[in-house]
Amino acid sequence: MVTNIAAYHFVAIDAPGVLATRLRGWAEAGALLGTVLVAGEGINLFLAGAGAAVEEFLAQLRDDPRFAGLQVKYSHSTAQPFARLKVKVKPEIISFRRDGASPLRGRAPAVVPADLARWIAQGHDDAGKPVVLLDTRNREEVGYGTFAGALALPIDNFTELPAALEPHRDALRDATVVSFCTGGIRCEKAALWMRADGMDNVLQLDGGILGYFEQVGGQGYDGRCFVFDGRVALDPALAPLVDAGVGEAA
Protein backbone atom coordinates (compact mmCIF):
# COMPACT_ATOMS: atom_id res chain seq x y z
CA MET A 1 0.00 0.00 0.00
CA VAL A 2 1.29 3.43 -0.98
CA THR A 3 0.73 6.39 1.34
CA ASN A 4 -0.08 9.66 -0.43
CA ILE A 5 0.19 13.00 1.32
CA ALA A 6 -0.76 16.55 0.37
CA ALA A 7 0.30 19.50 2.50
CA TYR A 8 1.12 23.17 2.32
CA HIS A 9 2.29 25.65 4.89
CA PHE A 10 2.65 29.41 4.60
CA VAL A 11 5.66 30.71 6.51
CA ALA A 12 8.48 33.10 5.67
CA ILE A 13 11.50 31.28 4.24
CA ASP A 14 14.66 33.32 3.86
CA ALA A 15 16.62 30.75 1.84
CA PRO A 16 14.21 28.68 -0.30
CA GLY A 17 17.03 27.02 -2.24
CA VAL A 18 18.67 25.71 0.92
CA LEU A 19 15.37 24.28 2.17
CA ALA A 20 14.62 22.73 -1.25
CA THR A 21 17.94 20.90 -1.21
CA ARG A 22 17.22 19.57 2.27
CA LEU A 23 13.74 18.40 1.31
CA ARG A 24 15.05 16.68 -1.80
CA GLY A 25 17.59 14.79 0.27
CA TRP A 26 14.97 13.58 2.76
CA ALA A 27 12.59 12.54 -0.02
CA GLU A 28 15.30 10.69 -1.94
CA ALA A 29 16.44 8.91 1.21
CA GLY A 30 12.92 7.55 1.63
CA ALA A 31 12.41 6.79 -2.08
CA LEU A 32 9.47 9.20 -2.13
CA LEU A 33 8.15 10.49 -5.44
CA GLY A 34 5.99 13.52 -6.18
CA THR A 35 6.28 17.30 -6.26
CA VAL A 36 7.69 19.72 -3.71
CA LEU A 37 7.47 23.47 -4.31
CA VAL A 38 9.37 25.94 -2.14
CA ALA A 39 9.08 29.73 -2.16
CA GLY A 40 9.72 32.64 0.13
CA GLU A 41 6.10 32.29 1.31
CA GLY A 42 6.24 28.57 2.28
CA ILE A 43 6.04 25.05 0.91
CA ASN A 44 3.54 23.00 -1.09
CA LEU A 45 4.03 19.26 -1.44
CA PHE A 46 2.45 16.14 -2.89
CA LEU A 47 4.42 13.00 -2.10
CA ALA A 48 3.86 9.25 -2.14
CA GLY A 49 5.75 6.19 -0.92
CA ALA A 50 5.99 3.67 1.87
CA GLY A 51 4.12 4.76 4.99
CA ALA A 52 7.17 4.60 7.26
CA ALA A 53 9.22 6.68 4.81
CA VAL A 54 6.48 9.29 4.56
CA GLU A 55 6.31 9.59 8.34
CA GLU A 56 10.10 9.90 8.60
CA PHE A 57 10.04 12.71 6.04
CA LEU A 58 7.30 14.51 7.98
CA ALA A 59 9.08 14.02 11.30
CA GLN A 60 12.24 15.63 9.92
CA LEU A 61 10.23 18.48 8.44
CA ARG A 62 8.33 19.14 11.67
CA ASP A 63 11.60 19.22 13.61
CA ASP A 64 12.03 22.61 11.97
CA PRO A 65 10.01 25.00 14.19
CA ARG A 66 8.67 26.76 11.10
CA PHE A 67 6.78 23.59 10.14
CA ALA A 68 5.84 22.19 13.53
CA GLY A 69 2.18 22.92 12.82
CA LEU A 70 2.11 21.41 9.31
CA GLN A 71 -1.30 19.91 8.55
CA VAL A 72 -1.27 16.87 6.26
CA LYS A 73 -4.03 15.19 4.24
CA TYR A 74 -3.61 11.44 3.70
CA SER A 75 -4.93 8.98 1.13
CA HIS A 76 -3.79 5.57 -0.10
CA SER A 77 -3.36 3.65 -3.32
CA THR A 78 -2.05 0.25 -4.31
CA ALA A 79 0.44 1.73 -6.79
CA GLN A 80 2.82 4.71 -6.92
CA PRO A 81 0.94 7.57 -8.67
CA PHE A 82 4.03 9.67 -9.45
CA ALA A 83 6.66 8.97 -12.10
CA ARG A 84 9.49 10.87 -10.44
CA LEU A 85 10.49 13.36 -7.75
CA LYS A 86 10.40 17.05 -8.62
CA VAL A 87 11.65 19.70 -6.18
CA LYS A 88 11.43 23.28 -7.42
CA VAL A 89 11.98 26.80 -6.08
CA LYS A 90 9.21 29.15 -7.24
CA PRO A 91 8.22 32.81 -6.71
CA GLU A 92 4.97 31.55 -5.12
CA ILE A 93 3.90 28.08 -4.00
CA ILE A 94 0.75 28.68 -6.03
CA SER A 95 0.94 31.39 -8.65
CA PHE A 96 -1.68 34.14 -8.22
CA ARG A 97 0.30 37.35 -8.77
CA ARG A 98 -2.06 39.59 -6.80
CA ASP A 99 -1.45 41.98 -3.94
CA GLY A 100 -3.39 41.37 -0.75
CA ALA A 101 -3.20 37.58 -1.05
CA SER A 102 -0.26 36.79 1.22
CA PRO A 103 -1.14 34.52 4.16
CA LEU A 104 2.10 35.65 5.78
CA ARG A 105 0.14 38.68 7.00
CA GLY A 106 -2.53 36.46 8.57
CA ARG A 107 -4.95 33.80 7.38
CA ALA A 108 -8.42 34.48 6.04
CA PRO A 109 -11.29 33.37 8.32
CA ALA A 110 -12.11 29.72 7.73
CA VAL A 111 -15.00 27.31 8.12
CA VAL A 112 -14.18 23.76 9.18
CA PRO A 113 -15.65 20.82 7.23
CA ALA A 114 -18.12 19.77 9.93
CA ASP A 115 -19.61 23.26 10.08
CA LEU A 116 -19.84 23.53 6.30
CA ALA A 117 -21.58 20.15 6.12
CA ARG A 118 -24.11 21.44 8.66
CA TRP A 119 -24.64 24.64 6.68
CA ILE A 120 -25.21 22.63 3.50
CA ALA A 121 -27.74 20.41 5.28
CA GLN A 122 -29.67 23.30 6.79
CA GLY A 123 -29.47 25.52 3.71
CA HIS A 124 -27.84 28.53 5.40
CA ASP A 125 -25.07 29.49 7.80
CA ASP A 126 -25.56 29.78 11.56
CA ALA A 127 -26.65 33.42 11.18
CA GLY A 128 -29.33 32.47 8.66
CA LYS A 129 -27.50 33.88 5.64
CA PRO A 130 -27.47 31.97 2.33
CA VAL A 131 -24.22 30.16 1.60
CA VAL A 132 -22.53 30.33 -1.80
CA LEU A 133 -19.77 27.82 -2.43
CA LEU A 134 -17.14 29.33 -4.73
CA ASP A 135 -14.96 26.87 -6.65
CA THR A 136 -11.51 28.40 -7.20
CA ARG A 137 -10.22 25.52 -9.37
CA ASN A 138 -10.03 25.42 -13.16
CA ARG A 139 -12.70 24.07 -15.48
CA GLU A 140 -10.91 20.73 -16.09
CA GLU A 141 -10.86 20.01 -12.36
CA VAL A 142 -14.49 21.09 -11.94
CA GLY A 143 -15.45 18.61 -14.67
CA TYR A 144 -14.66 15.71 -12.34
CA GLY A 145 -16.89 17.01 -9.56
CA THR A 146 -17.74 19.90 -7.27
CA PHE A 147 -20.15 20.85 -4.52
CA ALA A 148 -23.79 20.80 -5.63
CA GLY A 149 -24.85 24.28 -6.73
CA ALA A 150 -21.34 25.73 -6.44
CA LEU A 151 -20.34 28.80 -8.40
CA ALA A 152 -17.69 27.50 -10.80
CA LEU A 153 -15.84 30.10 -12.86
CA PRO A 154 -14.78 29.52 -16.49
CA ILE A 155 -11.04 29.67 -15.84
CA ASP A 156 -8.08 27.61 -16.98
CA ASN A 157 -5.53 29.17 -14.61
CA PHE A 158 -5.83 30.42 -11.05
CA THR A 159 -4.51 33.84 -12.10
CA GLU A 160 -7.71 34.32 -14.15
CA LEU A 161 -9.98 34.16 -11.10
CA PRO A 162 -10.23 37.91 -10.29
CA ALA A 163 -11.52 38.85 -13.74
CA ALA A 164 -13.89 35.87 -13.91
CA LEU A 165 -15.32 36.72 -10.49
CA GLU A 166 -16.07 40.35 -11.32
CA PRO A 167 -19.54 39.81 -12.91
CA HIS A 168 -20.71 37.89 -9.81
CA ARG A 169 -19.67 40.30 -7.07
CA ASP A 170 -23.01 42.08 -6.67
CA ALA A 171 -24.93 38.79 -6.51
CA LEU A 172 -22.62 37.56 -3.74
CA ARG A 173 -22.94 40.66 -1.58
CA ASP A 174 -25.61 39.32 0.84
CA ALA A 175 -24.34 35.73 1.09
CA THR A 176 -21.67 33.99 3.10
CA VAL A 177 -19.18 32.99 0.41
CA VAL A 178 -17.05 29.90 1.08
CA SER A 179 -14.12 29.54 -1.30
CA PHE A 180 -12.79 26.01 -1.81
CA CYS A 181 -10.20 24.12 -3.85
CA THR A 182 -8.41 20.76 -3.78
CA GLY A 183 -6.34 21.05 -0.62
CA GLY A 184 -6.86 24.60 0.62
CA ILE A 185 -4.00 26.60 -0.85
CA ARG A 186 -5.85 28.34 -3.70
CA CYS A 187 -9.02 29.04 -1.73
CA GLU A 188 -6.89 30.53 1.06
CA LYS A 189 -5.18 32.95 -1.30
CA ALA A 190 -8.44 33.71 -3.10
CA ALA A 191 -10.27 34.43 0.17
CA LEU A 192 -7.51 36.76 1.33
CA TRP A 193 -7.51 38.64 -1.97
CA MET A 194 -11.31 38.95 -2.03
CA ARG A 195 -11.42 40.27 1.52
CA ALA A 196 -8.64 42.77 0.76
CA ASP A 197 -10.65 43.80 -2.30
CA GLY A 198 -13.74 44.64 -0.25
CA MET A 199 -15.56 41.30 0.00
CA ASP A 200 -15.56 40.88 3.77
CA ASN A 201 -18.19 38.10 3.59
CA VAL A 202 -15.72 35.49 2.27
CA LEU A 203 -14.41 32.47 4.17
CA GLN A 204 -12.13 29.65 3.10
CA LEU A 205 -12.89 25.94 3.49
CA ASP A 206 -10.20 24.76 5.88
CA GLY A 207 -8.29 21.89 4.25
CA GLY A 208 -10.12 22.13 0.94
CA ILE A 209 -12.07 19.30 -0.67
CA LEU A 210 -9.59 16.63 0.44
CA GLY A 211 -9.88 17.77 4.04
CA TYR A 212 -13.67 17.76 3.70
CA PHE A 213 -13.65 14.21 2.31
CA GLU A 214 -11.29 13.06 5.05
CA GLN A 215 -13.35 14.56 7.88
CA VAL A 216 -17.00 14.34 6.81
CA GLY A 217 -17.19 12.40 3.54
CA GLY A 218 -19.11 13.60 0.52
CA GLN A 219 -22.15 15.38 1.94
CA GLY A 220 -23.29 17.93 -0.62
CA TYR A 221 -20.53 17.02 -3.08
CA ASP A 222 -21.22 15.61 -6.56
CA GLY A 223 -18.57 13.42 -8.20
CA ARG A 224 -14.85 13.19 -7.50
CA CYS A 225 -12.00 15.56 -6.73
CA PHE A 226 -9.33 15.89 -9.40
CA VAL A 227 -5.77 15.39 -8.15
CA PHE A 228 -2.54 16.17 -9.94
CA ASP A 229 -1.10 12.67 -10.25
CA GLY A 230 -1.72 9.27 -11.81
CA ARG A 231 -4.79 8.58 -9.69
CA VAL A 232 -6.58 11.32 -11.68
CA ALA A 233 -9.36 11.88 -9.12
CA LEU A 234 -10.51 10.71 -5.68
CA ASP A 235 -14.03 9.91 -4.55
CA PRO A 236 -15.39 11.04 -1.15
CA ALA A 237 -13.98 7.87 0.42
CA LEU A 238 -10.55 8.95 -0.97
CA ALA A 239 -10.48 5.97 -3.35
CA PRO A 240 -8.69 6.70 -6.65
CA LEU A 241 -10.36 6.72 -10.05
CA VAL A 242 -7.23 5.04 -11.44
CA ASP A 243 -5.26 2.78 -9.12
CA ALA A 244 -2.37 1.70 -11.28
CA GLY A 245 1.26 2.74 -11.44
CA VAL A 246 2.15 5.63 -13.71
CA GLY A 247 2.24 4.34 -17.27
CA GLU A 248 0.38 1.11 -16.42
CA ALA A 249 -3.08 0.11 -17.55
CA ALA A 250 -5.79 0.60 -14.97
Distance between the termini: 16 Å
* Structural class computed from helices and strand pairing: alpha/beta
Instruction: Indicate the low-confidence ranges by residue numbers.
Output: none
The tally of domains stands at 2
CATH architecture of the largest domain: 3-Layer(aba) Sandwich
Describe the sheet with the most strands: 5 strands, mixed
Task: Report the principal-axis shape.
Answer: globular
Number of discrete helical segments:
7
CATH class categorisation of the largest domain: Alpha Beta
Average pLDDT level: 95
How many individual β-strands? 14
Strand order of the largest sheet: 4-1-3-2-5
Q: Return the CATH topology of the largest domain.
A: Oxidized Rhodanese, domain 1
Radius of gyration (CA) equals 18 Å
Q: Which superfamily, in CATH terms, is the homologous superfamily of the largest domain?
A: Rhodanese-like domain
Strand content: 25-35%
Helix content: 25-40%
Q: Can you write the helix and strand succession as a string?
A: EHEEHEEEHEHEEHEHEHEEE
